[in-house]
Amino acid sequence: MTTDETISEITELFEKHGADDYYGEPVSQLEHMLQSAMLAERAGADDETIIAAFLHDIGHLLPSELAEDHMDNYGRVDHEKLGADWLRERGFSEKVAQLIEHHVNAKRYLTYKHPAYFNKLSEASLKTLEFQGGPMTEAEAHDFEQNPYFRGILQVRGWDEQAKETDVAMPSANHYLDLCRTYLESRS
């Protein structure tokens, strides 16, 4: 798949589903992902991390009509893995894929490791946590800490949690789509 085809596919997903509500939160899917990317960019993250923050929930936008593919009204089951695999197939790096694939595990980890984190989760995040397996066990947490991208995954999770604000001025999707284009072209 060419870079142009990949960017067109991502753009099409945003055009079809970007204006959809972000499952129980006061922002749209696209607003949530743009805010995540903007927070990563403001924190001085590298391009791969900004791209992962931007596309971390792309799995929610992938088409599916099957009820069992959804967490009631809270998005796609395994959206993190679906999105990571979809992006791997299109030439994104393993780092981008890992940061996306494990952002849900980061929530599970943080609710295990820091019980106060659990109390800060929004109602929607608490509901999805139930579908996602709840807080990690001690063994799961130990294994998760060994991931070479552990710190970056936690950063993406933090931006994900913060990216639910209304009336935030942010760059357009084209700003981050251009970053994706430049990044993919540099990998080919």
Report on the architecture of this protein.
InterPro entries: HD/PDEase_dom, HD_domain, HDIG_dom, OP_Dioxygenase, Phosphonate_degrad-assoc. It comes from Larkinella arboricola. Residues 29-124 form the HD domain. It is a single chain. The protein is an all-alpha fold. The protein has a single domain (3-186), classed as Orthogonal Bundle (Hypothetical protein af1432). It is built from 12 helices and no strands. Helix 3 (47-55) crosses helix 6 (94-101). It is globular and about 45 Å long. The protein starts with a helix and ends with a helix.
Helical content (DSSP H or I, runs of 4+) = 55-70%
Count of DSSP H/I helices: 12
The helix-and-strand class reads: mainly alpha
Q: Give the domain tally.
A: 1
Distance between the termini: 11 Å
Biggest sheet record = none
> Can you count the beta strands?
0
Unreliable spans: none
**Share in β-strands:** under 5%
The CATH superfamily bears the name Hypothetical protein af1432
Radius of gyration: 16 Å
